[in-house]
Design brief:
Length: 437
């Protein structure tokens, strides 16, 4: 039986593959072509809808050639996206772009129309003309042209950095809303429990290593309950696990010896991070896009400010979420079974603002937008999370002091502005009301 890791990797491959749906479209187009030929023999076609053999051959030949050309056109657009993403956005964004359903639908439609027309073309003879099929092929071309226009519209608008940032933010927030408890369909116990601490009875190691992409929380809970032990996941999602590194720790005295290969099959490792169980990966991509805009090759601080808008929204959502450095999950009886490491508010905050501050400190509008972002977080997050925001504000103050020796420019850089430059003072609801920082 395939392991959970294999199924997870297979699902990743299917979601990011650009050839599986088009191949299915080819097969479906050929089958529909055969069905149209059979139906044409059974249904009487009005005289006005009939074609001569020469006309039908010309129409279907043109459709076959046009579909091949359109497939090449969409592939060319895909190459342009790769160049744009790796040059001005973030190579990490490609993990999300490969999942574009519209592009796969367009490729499938073009491939299916090609197979449909080709299937009809080979059946045309002096006395045999698939009149119904030729008409349907013409309708398929019309639908293909509409889909091409929709795709071009989506491509032109969605490749802008701000549109990419919006999509990445929404993807990350959707993953953030899926808790570890929901993944495992189990109970989340209080953080004060000491389950999984101390020296493990046994460890499960990685064979080849790779980026920690996800874990089967539900499977681990069932395994631990069945063997009467506690399993501790040794790494957070997104970490790189070296070959031979520890994946899982087994605590307690299991009824039967655990099966290392089976346990290792509940952890998915891959070549790079993925967003499925890792909302911080989305924040990583947003920070990449902002810092790429601040590089000397691009030098576009306004784009960085626009991306910071989405970093701001993401951090506000994270700041209001329940975060734990350690998730202790129990079985149906409330017995601790699995410990999964989490990510703290401080780590999310550092990931969102540190590199933007370091690379954009020379830009007035980036400094002002960062100031407004952090001032807004002071008001928007719970009191216990504000010290981390104040530390980031102190780091921003230190960097501004170092970068702007002139008092006037330093004062401008230390003024919060949600537009970077031109927005005036921050809105009243973004200003802290809890005393000095």
């Amino acid at each position: 039986m395939p392991t959970w890791s294999f199924r997870f990797q297979l699902g990743q491959y299917v979601r990011t593959s650009l050839w599986i749906l088009p191949v299915l479209g080819l097969v479906l187009g050929a089958l529909l072509g055969e069905a149209a030929l059979a139906l044409d023999d059974m249904v009487g076609i009005p005289t006005g809808w009939r074609y001569t053999a020469a006309t039908a051959t010309g129409v279907l030949t043109a459709i076959v050639g046009a579909m091949v050309a359109l497939l090449g056109f969409v592939v060319t657009i895909g190459v342009l996206v790769v160049q744009q993403a790796t040059g001005t956005l973030s190579p990490r964004y490609m993990r999300l772009w490969y999942r574009n359903r519209l592009q796969k639908a367009v490729l499938s439609l073009f491939a299916g129309t090609f197979a449909f027309a080709f299937t009809l073309l080979r059946r045309i003879g002096p006395d045999t003309v698939p009149d119904l099929g030729v008409t349907l092929a013409g309708l398929a071309v019309a639908v293909s042209l509409v889909m091409l226009l929709v795709y071009l519209n989506r491509f032109v608008h969605d490749l802008r950095p701000v549109a990419v940032a919006d999509r990445v933010r929404r993807t990350g927030l959707r993953v953030l809303g899926t808790s570890v408890q929901a993944q495992g369909r189990c109970s989340l116990l209080g953080g004060e429990t000491h389950a999984g601490r101390g020296t493990p009875a046994e460890v499960v190691r990685s064979a080849d290593g790779g980026a920690f992409q996800g874990t089967d929380v539900a499977g681990l809970v069932r395994f631990a309950a069945r063997h009467d032990c506690v399993l501790v996941v040794a790494h957070r999602v997104g970490d790189f696990v070296p070959p031979g590194g520890v994946l899982l720790e087994v605590h307690g005295e299991p009824r039967t010896p655990p099966e290392p290969h089976r346990l290792a099959g509940m952890v998915a490792l891959g070549a790079e991070r993925t967003v499925e169980q890792d909302p911080a990966f989305a924040l990583r991509v947003l920070a990449d896009i902002a810092t790429r805009a601040l590089s000397s090759a691009v030098n576009d601080p306004t784009t960085a400010v626009q991306v910071l808008n989405h970093v701001d929204a993401f951090l506000h959502a994270v700041g209001r979420s329940e975060l734990r450095g350690r998730h202790v999950l129990g079985d149906s009886d409330g017995v601790p079974r699995v410990v999964v490491p989490g990510r703290s508010w401080e780590e999310y905050l550092e990931l969102g603002v540190t590199e933007v501050r370091e690379y954009g400190i020379g830009s007035l509008q980036v400094c002002r937008r960062l100031r407004a972002l952090l001032d807004g977080l002071l008001e928007g997050v719970p009191p216990e999370r504000r010290p981390a925001v104040r530390r980031q504000l102190a780091l921003l103050d230190t960097a501004v002091e170092r970068e702007f020796p002139d008092a006037v420019r330093r004062s401008l850089a230390r003024t919060g502005d949600r537009q970077g430059i031109g927005g005036g003072s921050p809105s009243p609801d973004a200003l802290p009301r809890h005393g000095p920082r």
